[in-house]
TrEMBL record, chains A, B, C, D:
The lineage of its organism: Bacteria, Pseudomonadati, Thermodesulfobacteriota, Desulfuromonadia, Desulfuromonadales. The keyword Methyltransferase applies. It comes from Desulfuromonas soudanensis. Pathway: Cofactor biosynthesis; adenosylcobalamin biosynthesis. One of its GO terms (molecular function) is protein methyltransferase activity. Keywords: Cobalamin biosynthesis, Methyltransferase, S-adenosyl-L-methionine, Transferase. This is Precorrin-6Y C5,15-methyltransferase (Decarboxylating). GO terms for biological process: cobalamin biosynthetic process; methylation. Transmembrane segments: none annotated.
Length: 202, 202, 202, 202
C-alpha cells in the first residue's frame, strides 16, 4: 500500500502509528497500534527523559517512543531469547537511536541502569510486585509508571501496590474493534480489552 | 527531529498526550486525549507532510501533530468564531510553529492552500460530501483521509463516499472508560464511542 | 457444574440465559448468551404475540423466547440444512412448545405464516432488503423489528430501509468481554461488537 | 408458565425488557434495561427458586425476575427510605406477585428470610464483605451469586471473597451505547461500563 522504511533512513517511517505488521514479532503478543499510542500518551514523555520499557516484547513501544524522546534515553528490558531477537531486528529496521536493549530478568537487571523518569511495564513474568518495588525506589519525583494489564489479577495487584505506595492513580480501559481493509464486508473485529494503569509518584 | 515547547512553563508539556484540560476549549467538544492520539496514529504522518485539519475546533489535533511534522505544514481550518479564538490561544500557548490558522467555511476556504498529503476531518458543519469531493480532487496519490464520526449518519455517508471513490477503507471503533484520579472510588466513566474512518487513495 | 435439562421437562432449564454450550450449533455462529437476552429485551414481547425468527441459525433466540410467549406463536425460519438439523435437535432438547420450524428461503417461505407482531432477523442470506419489504407489508401496527448486525453494511442498509419506511429507530451497540471460569488468570476475552437495531412501525 | 400484567394499562408491559422510564426511580441509579437482562441471564433462574435482591434500588431486577420465577419467591431488600417508596410504587404498578419488600440493613435483615438459591447484589452500602459472608452461609449448594460492580474497588473485593471461599467465578464486562430514538442524528451515547460478577458455590 504505502511504501515505508525503504531508504536508509527515517523518512518513510510514520512519526506515530507504525502498523503492527511492520514489526518482527509473535503476532498475538504485540501491543496493538491503537493501544500502543494511548500507552505512549499516558506516559506523558518529555524530550529528554529516561524511559524503562520492562517486558519490551518486540520493542514496539520503545521504538515508537524513540521519536518522542529526541534527547532522551530508552532501555528496552526483555528476558525471553526469542523476543530479544525480535527487538534486535526491529531496532535495526527502524533505526531507533535512543533505545538500548537490556537482556535479563527484571528487577535484577535494572540495577545498573540510570534512574528513570518514566517506566512502562508491558509484561512482568510473574515478578510484578518485586519489579514495582524496585521501580518505586528508583523513580524520579513526579515520575510516572504505566502498566498494560490484560488480566484482572494484574490490574488488582498493580492498583493495590500504587495505593499502598501513595501514588495518584488513573485506570483507562480501551475497547477497540476494527474492520479489515481488504474484506468484502466491513465486519468489526474486537481486540481483547486492555487496562492502562497510569500512576504518578507524588 | 522533534521540537520542544521551550518558553515559560511550556517545558512541562509532553511530546504526546497533552491533557485535555490544558487546551482552551468548550469541554464537551474537544477530541479526547486517547481519541486524539489514535487519530494521529491513523493519519500515518511523516516528517515533511502537509496536513489539513478541517473543523479544527480547539486545534488540539493540529497542536499534537505539530510535534510529528517537524518539517511539515499544518492548516487548521475553522469557521466558528469562538473556536477560532480558542485556536489562537492554544497555538500561542503551545508554541505550535508549523500550524497556520485558516478562518472560513470549508470547502471554499481550502482553495488557496497547498495540496495535502493527509487530511483530518473532525467536523464538517453539514458539508461533508462537498468537503470530501474537494479533498479527493486535491489529495496526493497514496494520500490518507481520517474522519472522526460520532453519529451513524456521518459514518455511513463517509463510507459511501470512499467506497464510490475507490479508496481503501478501515473503520476503528474506540470505546474508552476511565477512572477519575482524585475520587475515593475508582468508578469507570465512559466516553461516547467514536468511529475513526481511515481512507487511503489508491 | 449445574445439572440442567435432566428430567423429562422444563424444570432444570433456566427461564432465561441458557448457556451457549447447551445448544447444538456451530460454535462461532450462535447468538451469544448476553447478546441473545438483550435482543429479546429489545423485542418487547408480550405473552400472546406472534414472532418470526428469520435466519434462526441454531434456534437459540426462538427457544429462549418460548418462555416469554406462553400464549404466543414463534416461527423459526431457516434455509441452511445443517442449521435446520440443529434447530430440530434443540427444539426437542428444550421442549420448546410454541416454536414451529419453517424450512426455506425468506421472504418466499413467509407467505403462509400468520402476520407477525414481532420480527427478529439474525441472518438474511443476502436478501435483507426483500425480507424487510415483505416484513413491512405484513407487520402489525405498532409492530417491532429487531436486527442483529455484525457488519457495517447490514447496519447501514437496515437503517436506510427503516428511515425510508417511517419507522422509529434505535441502535444499541453491545461490547461484551468475559473471563473464562476455569482458567488460572482472569483474562478478559472480547466478543465482536453487535449492533442491535430496533425499529417500531408507527 | 409466565403470568401477565393484567389490570388497567398493564397489558402493554413486555415479558422481558421493561423500559427504564416505566419505573419510578432516580434516573441515574436504575440498572439499565440492557444490563438488567444480562444480569438476569447470569442468575440462571429456574421456575421455583428463591431469590434475594440485595440493594434493590427501584426494584427493577426483582420485577423483571417476577416473570421468570412463576413458582418462586423474591425478596427485595432495601434500606434507603426513598428507594423503599419507589419499590412499593413499582411493585404495585407491575403487579409483581412473587416479590416481598424487606426494609432494613443487610446483612442484619436477612436473618428471617428463607435460604436463597440465587442472590443478586446491586448495592451493598459499604457492607459488601459482611453481606457476602452471610450470603455464603445461607446459599444453597450449587447456588449462584451475581454482583453488578461499577467501581474497581467492588470488583476487586468481590473477586477476592469468592476466590477465598472457593466459588467458581466469571466476570463479564458490558459496554453499551445507544442512539436516542427521537433525535435527528443517530449519536451513540455510552453507559458507564458494568462488571457483572457471577459466582457459583461448588
Amino acid at each position: 500500500l504505502i511504501k515505508e522504511y525503504e531508504a536508509g533512513g527515517d523518512e518513510y517511517i510514520p512519526t506515530l502509528g507504525i502498523p503492527d505488521e511492520e514489526f518482527a514479532t509473535v503476532k498475538k503478543l504485540i501491543t496493538k497500534e491503537e493501544i500502543r499510542v494511548v500507552t505512549l500518551a499516558k506516559l506523558k514523555l518529555r524530550h529528554d527523559m529516561c524511559l524503562w520499557d520492562i517486558g519490551a516484547g518486540s520493542g514496539s513501544v520503545s521504538i515508537e517512543a524513540d521519536h518522542l524522546l529526541p534527547n532522551g534515553r530508552i532501555f528496552a528490558v526483555e528476558r525471553n531469547p526469542q523476543c530479544v531477537e525480535f527487538i534486535k531486528e526491529n531496532l535495526s529496521k527502524f533505526n531507533a537511536r535512543h533505545v538500548t536493549l537490556v537482556e535479563g530478568d527484571a528487577p535484577g537487571c535494572l540495577e545498573n541502569l540510570p534512574d528513570p523518569d518514566r517506566v512502562f511495564i508491558g509484561g512482568s513474568g510473574g515478578n510484578l510486585w518485586d519489579i514495582l518495588d524496585t521501580v518505586d525506589g528508583r523513580l524520579a519525583a513526579e515520575g510516572r509508571v504505566v502498566i498494560n494489564a490484560v488480566t484482572l489479577d494484574t490490574l488488582t495487584a498493580a492498583c493495590e501496590f500504587f495505593e499502598n505506595a501513595g501514588y495518584q492513580l488513573e485506570v483507562t480501559t480501551v475497547n477497540i474493534a476494527r474492520t479489515r481493509p481488504l474484506s468484502d464486508y466491513k465486519i468489526f473485529e474486537s481486540y481483547n480489552p486492555v487496562y492502562i494503569i497510569a500512576a504518578v509518584k507524588e
